[in-house]
Amino acid sequence: MKLKINKLLRFSCNNESFLSHKSTHFEGYLEKKCTFTLYRNPYLFSFKFEQNRKHYIMIFKKLILILLCTITTTVFSQDKTTQPPYLKAGDTVAIVAPSGALINKEDKIEQSINLLKSWGLHVVVGDNVFKVYNHFAGTDDERCEDYQKALDDPTISAILCARGGYGTVRILDKLDYSKFRNHPKWLIGYSDITALHNQMQNEGYQSIHGLMCTSMQDDLSEIKETISTFKDAIFGNPLAYTLEGSEYNRPGKATGELIGGNLTLLHTMLGSKTSMDTSGKILFIEEVGEYKYHIDRMLQSLKRAGYFDNCKGVIVGDISNVRKNTTDWGSSVEQLIVDALSEYDFPIAFNMHAGHEDDNRAMIFGRTVDLTVGKDKSTFVFEE
Fold first, then answer.
1. Does the structure show a pLDDT above 50 at 77?
2. Is pLDDT of 36 > 50?
């Protein structure tokens, strides 16, 4: 039993008409002799009893029961994100390019197709993948068209993003997930794809932070862990990681859904409907090509927005190619992160191999993980 309440509802029964939305749950209880008003926040009820007091007390009790069932159902339905079906031989993967242009990257796409086919999967490539419009893989509409088509197609089991760069934020508000909800599928990517991971999280679906087509190397043995963990993630094999210890680790234990991605993109989402609720979650962050003061500024902005207030833990991935400023920051990037998060008591684990390095191990966003952090090592295990 579920009653969806979107706005102020008013039911006037004396004149036998309903002035706003009505629910079938109410039709059996409301009669012509009562006046009923329902407000959303807080849930207040006002009845004008004209006759048969006991009868209306019974109605009132039934309505309270309906609302309690509704609230309970809503709360528990939001506890867990939805897992798209794991892939199996014969399933189809769509390759799309929602971000930067793929100039001279045809060989990377071909390698990706061959890899997926070697696992018994079928592959389709978006119509606009190799288009170039300024910085992007086609216009906003063209990139959106490919991604939307993959979202809507019930025969697609996973969407593999060809590359990151920049561009997903420009198509977020054009996307429609109504058909996707009938046939959920895995979104796969990292970097700029963080924006789409955020959107998937807010829609209530799990997604995979992992390799993209541009991750391919001439010698695939050089990215053995990247490929093997990606395969494990899409085919439903167990995922668990043991991280090298760090003097910067903040020891502790936490359990919660893993969310996050590229720090710049998480910062970019602030104040928008695509920003994520981090309450009770474990946050993963990675970054590439930024000054230390940029990293600090983004962390300070997230902190001021309450991003870490109810966070359960933080896992730090690769912070790659840190740029040097003319004025030295004065500490390591690890110390910078520890200092920025010093007022919180949740565990912090460094040395996760995920981000903009060749060793980019797959993680399932929206999946509950058990995190244990020590100075000598850290572990986190994805619940099955």
1. no
2. no
Coil, helix or strand at residue 51: coil
Q: What percent of the chain has pLDDT over 90?
A: 79
Report the catalytic residues: 191, 286, 356
Q: What gap in Å lies between CA 299 and CA 55, rounded to an integer?
A: 58
Phi then psi dihedrals of residue 64, to 5 deg: -60, -45
Q: What is the pTM of this model?
A: 0.80
* Three-class HEC string of 105-173: CHHHHHHHHHHHHHCCCEEEECCCCCCCECCECCCHHHHHHHHHHHHHCCCEEEEEECCCCCCHHHCHH
All structural domains of the chain, each given as residue ranges with its CATH number in brackets, are 9-77 (no CATH), 85-237 (3.40.50.10740), 238-384 (3.50.30.60)
Provide the 10 A C-beta neighbour count for residue 377.
Answer: 15
**pLDDT tens for each residue of 268-305:** 999 999 999 999 999 999 999 999 999 999 999 999 99
Residue 189 CA to residue 208 CA, distance in Å, equals 7
Residue 92 is inside which H or E element, if any? strand 92-96
Length of the chain: 384
Q: Left, alpha or beta for 248 (phi > 0: left; psi -120 to 50: alpha)?
A: alpha
